[in-house]
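REQUEST FORM: STRUCTURE PREDICTION
Request ID: SP-0412
Submitted by: Lab K.M.
Chain count: 1
Length (residues): 262
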Amino acid sequence: MGQRVVEKAGYIAVNGVRFYYESYGTTGYPLIMLHGGLGGIEQFGALPMQLGQYRQVIAVEMQGHGHTGDAADRPLRYASMADDVAGLVQGLGFDQADVLGFSLGGAVALRTAIQHAGGVRRLILISTAATRAGIREDFRAGMAGLTPSAALYMLDTPMYQFYARVAPEVGAWPTLVGKVGDLLREDYDWSQAVSTLDMPILLIAGDDDMVSPAHLTETFGALPNAQIVILPETNHFNILGRTDALMAAITDFLDTRTDSKS
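STATUS: Completed
RESULT:
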């Protein structure tokens, strides 16, 4: 991924958690970016900085991830994490924002649009399923193995190395892995709620991704304001490295006028 140069960083308190965020650019409509599970803003590489040339980008690290501390008495739940995003948008002084999420962050972004539709102008989902059944079986099997004890075998991974470098409490790594595992093992089906969404939605996935093009077409294809972009020769682990393709799809989507919300 490209080099990331942080323009501005800070913390904002929402729902009892101090969320770390980085901002890029100062003009244009605000765009909130949410990373994947066990990751952080670093996952996006140079994408926030490049989007910041055209937008006001705020990349956020979710509860317990990266620089953001955990809340001991609060499990990770899609609904509460979506409330965090809505509170963060308001706390930053915006009535409404565009929201982009990758993988777990995409699920949180989708829940934000479902629970707080008035606060989401446009929605961008990268490698995101609207039902747990829409996730490939091999990925679901991997999610089943995310437990606190398994965290000890992940110390050589880039995810832990990033966490160890920036986390306020490095010893909380097993707790984070366990909480993420509990979240990812939960069954869900948001297809009915998705059918009610009327904001423009962009779905991006690789042709060998965690979520299949067929699932995206089945779940989102009937929505008049939904666009689906499938990147060739792309999987779940290299899709965020396709910066040029992502930039082209995202900027084109954000610049497109619609009759509803523009």
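NOTES: The CA atoms of residues 209 and 236 lie 5 Å apart.
Reviewed by: T.R.
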